[in-house]
Each structure stands twice: as C-alpha cells, then as structure tokens.
Amino acid sequence: MLSVLKSIVQEVNQIPRLTDALFRLAERVKQTMGVDSCSIYLADYTSRAFVLKATDGLAPDAVEIVKIGFSEGLIGLVGQREEPLNIEDAPNHPRFKHYPEVKEERYHAFLGTPIIHQRKVLGVITMQQSAQRKFSEDEEAFLVTLAAQIALEISHAETRGALNPIAGMYAVNIQKNVRGVPGSPGLAMGVGYSPHAAYTLATWIVKQSDKTQQEIEYYRKGVEITRTQVEVLSQRLEGQVPDDVRAIFQLYHQLLDANSLGREVETKIREGWDAASSLKLVVEAYAARFEAMDDPYMQERAIDIVDLSNRILVNILQVISGKDESVSALPNQASILVAEEVSAPMLAEFPKEHLAGIISIRGSNNSHAAILARAMGVPAVMGCQNVSPTLLEKKEILLDGYAGEVIVSPEKVIKAEFSQLIEEEKLLSERIDKEADKPCESEDGCTISLLVNAGLSAEVETAVQSGKVGIGLYRTEIPFMMRERFPSESEQVELYRNVLLSSPDRDIAMRTLDVGGDKPLPYFPITEENPFLGWRGIRLTLDHPEIFLVQIRAMLRASIGLKNLSIMLPMISSVGEVNEARRLVEQAYFEVDEEARAKGEQLHRPRLGIMLEVPSVLYQLPQLAKKVDFFSVGSNDLTQYLLAVDRNNTRVASLYNSYHPAVLSALYDIARQADQYNVPVSVCGEIAGEPGGAILLMGMGYRKLSMNAFNLRKINWVVRNVKLTEAQSLLSCALTSDSYEEVFNHINLYLESKGLGGLVRAGS
C-alpha cells in the first residue's frame, strides 16, 4: 500500500496545473481502490463553500459549478468535524443533501476525509460506491494517509497559482497576500530580489508560451552549449578517473541526443509550455520513474539526469537573456531581499542603500536571519514556506514586519495606503531620535541600563563604536564562522582588544565560543539528529580544552591594562560544567598573569558569569550563585527549551513565543532568585529589545537589558514614557494569562493607552 501511495503522490506532483493534478488524482484513486467514484472538493473561504474541483465518477459538468456550504451536506459535515466520515447508505443520512448537477443518485457507500494543512481545512476527498457497504479500515486508512500527503502540495499550489497563474496563455499580475512570521518590525516597499538564485529544475516555476518555434530554438541552443561543456569536462577527466566513472558522460551524450530528451521536450513546447518549463516537466517525470526503481544503479541515474538538465536549464536562460542567469545583478533600487535563508554574507554584499526589507523562506522570529534583520533595523518576514524565491523575483512587494504579511503586486489603493503608513513610521522614528540622548529612566524614577548585543556586524554596532554603551553579549563565534580554520590566539587577541577598547569605561561581556545547533563551523562539521540537544556551546569547548584555553588566553591578553572584561559561559546545564570551566579559566589566568608581570604589565581578573538558557539551571540557582559573579538570561534558547520548539522550524514557528506565560514565569523566578542571592542579572535575548518585553522585564526587577544596537533608542524612549508601577501591574496580568495571545492583548492595550502603539503595529 505504501508503494502505491508513493507512486500516486509522485505522479500527481509532476503535473503543473493544480486542476489537472486533481483530476489525475481522482482517476488514480478510483482505479487503485476499485471504487465507482472519487471526487475532490476544495474550500473557498470567501464564499464559505466547498467547490467541486475534480471527479472521476460524478458528472464532469458539475466541476466548478457545484458549491456546498461549509455547514451543508455530508461534505460540509466532514469539514466541520475535521475527521473521516464512513457511511453505509449516504442518501438516508440526515445530513445528506441532494445536488442534482452531480448525478450521484446511484451511489450509497460514502467515505470522505478532510484535507488539512496546519490546522486549516483545505478541502475534502471522497470515495463512493453503488453498493450499500461500509468502507474497510484499510480503505479508510489509505484515504486519510493520501489526504495528509497531498495537503501540503495543495497549499503550495494555491499560493504558486496566485503568484504565477498558468491557466491562461497571458498571465497577469494579481494582488496576493502571503502570510509568514513577523521577523523584524517595520514596513517596507520594494521590488523582489533573489541573490545568487541558481536556477534549478526544483525551483523553476512552470510558465506557458505561445511562441513555439522561438522556444524550440532556445532549447536547442541550450542543449548545444551543454553538449560542448560536457565534452570539455569529459576530456579534462581523461586519465584522471576510472573508465566506469567517465562512462557517465556517455549517458550524458545519449540524453543530449535529439532523439532522447529532445523529442519529448519539444513535444511539451508545442503543447504551450516555454522551453525551461518543458524541460522541467519531462525530466522530473523521468527522474521520478528512476527513483521508484529498486535497482540502486538506476536510482543513481535519476541524479545524473537532473544534474545534466540543470546545466541545460541555466544555458537556456543564458541564451534567452544574453547573460549568465545563475547570478542576479545587484539591485540599484529599493529592493526586498528574498532567499531560502538569509545569511550574514548575503547581507554583507547587498547594497545597504537599496535594502528595504527581507523575506526569508525558512526560519522563525528568532532564527539568525531574523536577529540579523533586527540588528540592522530592516523589516523582515520569516517562514513564508509556501513560496519560492523565484516567484517573488522582480515582483512589486509590500512587507509588513509587524504582522508578518507580504503583499505581492499590490493594487494602487493598497499601495497608497501603505506609503502613508511608511511616512507615519518615519515621523515616529524621527521623534524618537530627537530624545535618544536622554537618560533611560521611567516616569517614576526607575533607571534601566541598556547594553548592546554585538558581534553580528561591526557596521551596525555604531553605538558600541561611540563608546557610550557597554556590551551585554559579544558573540565571539562569528569570527570563527567567517574563517576557513580556527583563528590563532594572536588573531583573537587583536580582535578582542579592539572590542574592549571601543568602550574602555564600560563593561563588556564576551561569550565563549557558542557553536553547534544552528551555528556550524565550516571546517569543524558536526552531524547530529538533534543538534539543539547535542554537542554545542560549553559542551563542545570543555571537550576541546585546547580550543577553550586559547580563546580564554586571547581574551585575557586583550584585556591587559583594562578592567572592563567579563567572560560569559554559554549553554550551562550543571554545576559541574561551571567547576570545570572555572578551573580552565584559572589556569589561563595564571599563565597570562605571569607573562604580563614579566613585561611589567597588569592583568585585571575578569568577572565570570553564565548564560541561563537551559531549564535545568533554573533549579540550581542557589548553588550556581556561589560559583559565578553574574547571570545573563539567554531568553531565545530558554524559550526554545522550555516550550520544546525548534525556533528554526517553520512548521512549529507559531508555537515559539517568549511571551508564553510559562516563559514569563521562569524569567520572573530568575529575577527574584538573583535578587535573593545578590547576583547581578541581565537579559540578552531578543525579548529585551522589544517594547512590551522591556516593560515586562522592568516589572520583574531586571535593571540591565542587552539588545541589538538599533533598538537602543526605541527602548530608551519606551522606558521614559512608562511607570514602574504600571509595568508591575502589566506583569501581573501577563503572569495570570492563559496564552501568549492574551499577554499580547494586555501589552497592546497598555501601549495604545500610553500613545506607544506605533512601536508594535503599522502607523503612528
């Protein structure tokens, strides 16, 4: 049964038009299960009805005509109950409703199951039979499994279809709203730009064309270029690799022959598809058949076919444009950066004056892409998983980083309204800037110390360079990640010395190497099934004291003659780890101190602190308080571990939220225990740089908040416009709330009452 399901899903996925795919699905299910009818209805939430989209067994003329209300008939009942419905004699069921157009009078047995994606009912798939009978458990299980597998494809197809309609020969842009996760607050307007979009068959979105002869010429020229490239590669490897490896090129030559792939591709072109799309349709069908074979050799050939065809695709696009299409030219206008996952190097090469916003297909509110965006003050939306970057390329886009919404090809009225909101946001920002130098003190005299999370990008940390603010978190792993080897002790000394000298009179907390999880080192790969629960942070460096000691020595040498160094240990989960780390820090201190004395230099003993981000330490704070000089709460990972949510997984991104009442309770408990044991405590997670978060943390008793430099002025302005007593009252409401949505409601109502609503939503 599993192999049958797999073959059906693979075959349906190769069909570009959703309507064609659904008809084929109905046909295959009817044949496979030996039933009299299979039909698919999709939900139309505008008309609140299920629309018959495909059938094999009901009247074909009823397709797109019959609409069954969400609360009507057996189809509506399946959607309402969100579970399978197996009926022996459907016409006699109390919810049965007769629709003469579908001509189902002869059918009695009925099995329907909902098609659900991310808790949303997308449609209903049914099987019907003339005989009066209950469908078996196996038949029911088959349909439920099939519905689950096709739900994702239907969801993706609906989005792709709206962004790139292929039903007609001449597609026009229509406005489409795409939902994601708010990544960085703010509004942006610009043209979609996807850097280094290496076009592949997998990412290419099929398109139609009526210029048949021209598309055939594009294809033939692309093949000819590829043939030359393959010949060059084959000759280059002659004598260097075994003959059986070079034999792969013989397969390539066969595939490039006009009587092989060429004939089928040109047939697709004559059916109305453009050259690139025709290649995709033919090759993916071939690859699916090879992958389904039991012979490992034949399965490998699927990879060869796709690899060769990707070369042909790029060459076709190069022929069409006259330039290399594998790399997009850098933009010279306001642009929305679109990528599968935004990276630091990607942002580094992007012209800052043209970067209006960011869309990351993968990631959540606290993935590194989102943190980068907030550090730069660039609006961002994460986790738009139904969309390919190529669909947004060169499209006009409006981006709402507050709501996590992307509007593609906006209508004129919407665009005008959005422009007005951007103007209001700009005026509010100017108002905040005018008061940026005022002390961070609440209306009733509570002083908050604002620090910076640094290390992502020197360019965006202007506040650090000015020497006016300390660093609550310096991410030392970034220089490690940007190299092709571990940096030497001397290289680290130079780097850390510059950081310490940037604010010599301010405390600077340097976090020891925190890699693993979602921060791999290219030259020290770690492969784990659950990287966030694996070998990362202090666990890795304690297992490699040679790496840890070199880094600690570098920090200490960099601090000679200064008194502003604090060392912070990440991912602490036990007292034993602190004891071992302290031992190594002491060893390094005595070594460097001896070297400094010999030169007549003075080494000041740094403060040693730990990150509170693993839930186990919440129950060891009394013991840990005796071992360290300070605590720093890493709310990002603490949230992740408390809620058991991978913050980079878009499927569960909506469950990750630092305003969850359980997370707030943990933060409050830490603040109270830190005060009880007289240990200074700060928060360096992203919640500290958010208006609502800063107010709640102030109410809990935190007096040191560390955040991205861009948020300093905003949080300063927030603190000066609230009262500590109000923050404490708001905290009481939050801690007794049932959900983070309820917490947000309390925060938003409070901010609106204080005239601060423009900080968490569009508009002033």
From TrEMBL:
Gene3D superfamilies: 3.30.450.40, Phosphoenolpyruvate-binding domains, Phosphohistidine domain, PtsI, HPr-binding domain
Entry keyword Kinase: yes
UniProt GO molecular function: kinase activity; metal ion binding; phosphoenolpyruvate-protein phosphotransferase activity
Major localization listed first in the record, in broad terms: cytoplasm
Domain of life: Bacteria
Kinase among keywords: yes
Catalytic activity: L-histidyl-[protein] + phosphoenolpyruvate = N(pros)-phospho-L-histidyl-[protein] + pyruvate
Gene Ontology terms: cellular component: cytoplasm
Example GO biological process: phosphoenolpyruvate-dependent sugar phosphotransferase system
Name the UniProt record assigns to this protein: phosphoenolpyruvate--protein phosphotransferase
Organism: Alteromonas lipolytica
